[in-house]
Every structure is written in structure tokens, then in C-alpha cells.
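hiii so um. not sure if this is the right channel but i have a protein structure encoded as C-alpha cells and i wanna go backwards to a sequence. like what aa goes where. can anyone help
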């Protein structure tokens, strides 16, 4: 790592916000040396709670995130916010970079807000997002909130980055809840019915309850995936408890935590973010979920899966870069495509030819390692 990057890391760890901003810029732009810099961050991470906020466009995500950050600050905790926005088709940058709906914490140096573009990724999270989270974690932020684009079912990538995922469902969603059932709703650790002072909020809460109850039989919210191996041990959801603004099913969540073998049942919290209503109840549910993760051992398993996915992602990126170089050496993909068009070859033969040196290299490494492994045994 260069001397400049060493100094940048030192300043970041010393709590200088300018160094944090420069580090995230270096990460997002994939500037030379960023990988060495990120690798140094790992030793200083693992203390922050990472919260993902997602949901359909217009659900009030930015306003809610603003209120969450404000409330955390009132409690004396520092906050980092990563707002994933649609990418500009011209510059690749974040279209909504001004974050005009996050005004309550403007001027508070202990709330660091950074807009990042989705960069065309289906899940709404660029590869750089996880690295930016590590930078904020190493910096010493207590809470890191990721707000996603809100592009529907493709938002599920947030599960790989956040510890706790809050899914916003606006009142009167109706059939859209069923549309989202097989996608974005399955990732929720906490459901948030925002704008709960509007007509249709009670019905939306009821529909979510029914979906959670149905899912406990296997499938949505249970059986596998994000919410653990067995959702059938949960306490039943009391519809009356969630009827008031700011209500939740905290009792059932607490019951789950007390049993190490039970899975998490997503609670439903009603909020009116513009008025700050329901925010304390929502933060309480986030804290309860964090406790559940620690006591159930799911946090360690989630971290293991997250790092495994990071390794796979880096390998895909690196192998892809190597193959792009090979493609250029072979005349470029256009020339190869033209050869397929004229019948001189086919895509499978081209792929085999390009991968052959890689396979030979891996086989050679395997052959070299075998004697050493045998001698150790």
C-alpha cells in the first residue's frame, strides 16, 4: 500500500470525516490501490449494526431513514447512511445525490450521509456498497443504515450486506403485496407500514399478518432462507396489538429470542415518519432482532455467508477481467462473434479455448501442492 493510502487509513481510523469521504470515493471509483486499502479495513470492523431499509418507490424510505438517524443521534449514537440511488445513464453517478429528504441531521458531523449509485446492479446494491460499509464500520460508526433504490423484487441483494432488513410497505398496497410476495417481502426482518395515518393502513397490516401466518407453514418467512430453519415455533401474531400507529408484535419477537432454536417472526411496525411517530418502536424491534441474531448464533452464520459471497464476487470480477484481456488479445469479442456468425466456430469452442490456460494453471497449482500436502500428513 502506498504512503498516501497508509496516511488515509490512519486518518480514517482517527475519526476524520474527510478521510472517510475520500476512502469511500476511492472505493466507489475503484481507484488504484483501493483493494489494499479495503483489505486493511477488515481488522477494524465488526462493531457496527448494519440496517437495511428497502421497499417500493414512494414508500417514504428517505424520510424514515432521516428520522432513524435523528433518533439514534438523540440517544448519543453515531450514524452512517449509505443511500443507494439510481445510476445516471450519462455519468454512472447517483441521480438523487442531493438527498433533499434527509434534512433533520444536516450539519451534524456524527451523521455521515453518502449517496452511491446502483451502477446497474439488479439488486440495487453496487459491489462497492459492502466495502463502503466496512469503511464506516472501521471509522467507528455505531449504526450504519443502507437505503436502497426500491426497485421491487431485485432488492434482495441487501440481505448480503445488512444485519437487519426493514421493508417498507405503504398503506393500500393491495394486490402489490401479492406481487411482491415471492421477492422483496421475503427478506424482511421487520415490516414497516409507513404513512400509517392514511386510509388502508389497517388492511395492509392485516394482509401482512396473513402472509406471515401462511409462511410459517413453509415458504414465506420460514422454512428456509433469511428467517431461519423453522418458523412454526413462533407465537401467534395479535392483530389488535398492531392496530395503533407505532404498534408492533414485539411480544412474539421477544418470545423467539428466548428460545435459541426458534426462528425470527418478522414484526410489523406502523410509522408516520413525517411526524416521527412509531420511530422508537421501530428502533426497539431492530434492537430485539440484533439480540436474536447474537443469541441464536445466526449472526455468525450470516457473516460466514456474507464473506463467502464476497469471495465469490471478487473471484468473478477478477476472472472476468482476466478473460477480457484474453478477449482483446484474440481480437476482441466482436471479431469472435463475427467468426461465429460466419460459421467458422461457435461460442462453446471459443469459451473452451479462452479458459484452457486458466484450467492448465489451476491444474499446475494443484500438482505443486499435492507433494507438500502429502509430506505434511
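sure thing!! here u go:
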Amino acid at each position: 500500500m502506498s504512503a498516501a493510502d497508509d496516511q488515509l487509513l490512519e486518518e480514517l481510523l482517527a475519526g476524520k470525516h474527510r478521510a472517510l469521504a475520500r476512502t469511500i470515493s476511492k472505493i466507489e471509483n475503484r481507484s488504484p490501490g483501493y483493494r489494499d486499502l479495503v483489505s486493511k479495513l477488515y481488522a477494524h470492523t465488526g462493531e457496527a449494526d448494519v440496517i437495511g431499509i428497502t421497499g417500493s418507490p414512494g414508500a417514504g424510505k428517505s424520510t424514515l431513514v432521516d428520522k432513524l438517524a435523528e433518533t439514534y443521534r438523540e440517544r448519543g449514537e453515531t450514524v452512517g447512511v449509505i443511500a443507494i440511488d439510481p445510476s445516471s445513464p450519462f455519468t454512472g453517478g447517483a441521480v438523487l445525490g442531493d438527498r433533499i429528504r434527509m434534512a433533520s441531521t444536516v450539519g451534524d458531523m456524527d451523521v455521515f450521509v453518502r449517496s452511491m449509485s446502483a451502477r446497474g446492479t439488479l439488486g440495487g446494491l453496487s459491489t462497492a456498497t459492502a466495502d463502503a460499509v466496512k469503511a464506516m464500520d472501521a471509522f467507528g460508526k455505531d449504526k450504519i443504515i443502507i437505503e436502497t433504490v426500491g426497485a421491487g423484487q431485485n432488492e434482495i441483494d441487501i440481505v448480503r450486506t445488512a444485519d437487519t432488513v426493514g421493508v417498507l410497505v405503504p398503506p393500500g398496497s393491495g394486490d402489490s403485496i401479492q406481487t411482491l410476495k415471492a421477492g422483496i417481502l421475503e427478506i424482511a426482518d421487520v415490516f414497516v407500514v409507513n404513512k400509517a395515518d392514511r386510509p388502508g393502513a389497517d388492511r395492509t397490516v392485516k394482509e401482512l399478518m396473513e402472509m406471515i401466518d401462511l409462511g410459517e407453514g413453509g415458504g414465506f418467512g420460514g422454512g428456509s432462507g433469511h428467517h431461519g430453519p423453522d418458523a412454526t415455533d413462533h407465537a401467534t401474531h395479535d392483530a389488535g396489538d398492531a392496530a395503533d400507529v407505532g404498534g408492533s408484535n414485539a411480544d412474539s419477537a421477544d418470545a423467539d429470542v428466548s428460545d435459541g432454536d426458534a426462528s425470527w417472526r418478522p414484526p410489523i411496525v406502523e410509522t408516520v415518519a413525517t411526524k416521527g411517530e412509531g420511530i422508537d418502536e421501530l428502533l426497539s424491534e431492530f434492537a430485539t432482532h440484533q439480540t436474536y441474531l447474537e443469541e441464536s448464533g445466526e449472526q455468525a452464520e450470516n457473516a460466514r455467508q456474507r464473506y463467502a459471497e464476497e469471495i465469490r464476487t471478487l473471484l468473478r470480477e477478477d476472472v472476468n477481467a482476466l478473460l477480457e484481456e484474453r478477449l482483446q488479445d484474440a481480437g476482441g469479442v466482436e471479431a469472435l462473434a463475427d467468426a461465429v456468425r460466419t460459421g467458422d466456430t461457435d461460442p462453446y469452442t471459443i469459451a473452451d479455448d479462452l479458459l484452457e490456460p486458466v484450467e492448465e494453471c489451476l491444474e499446475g497449482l494443484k500438482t505443486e501442492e499435492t507433494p507438500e500436502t502429502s509430506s505434511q500428513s
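oh and The chain has twelve helices and seven strands.
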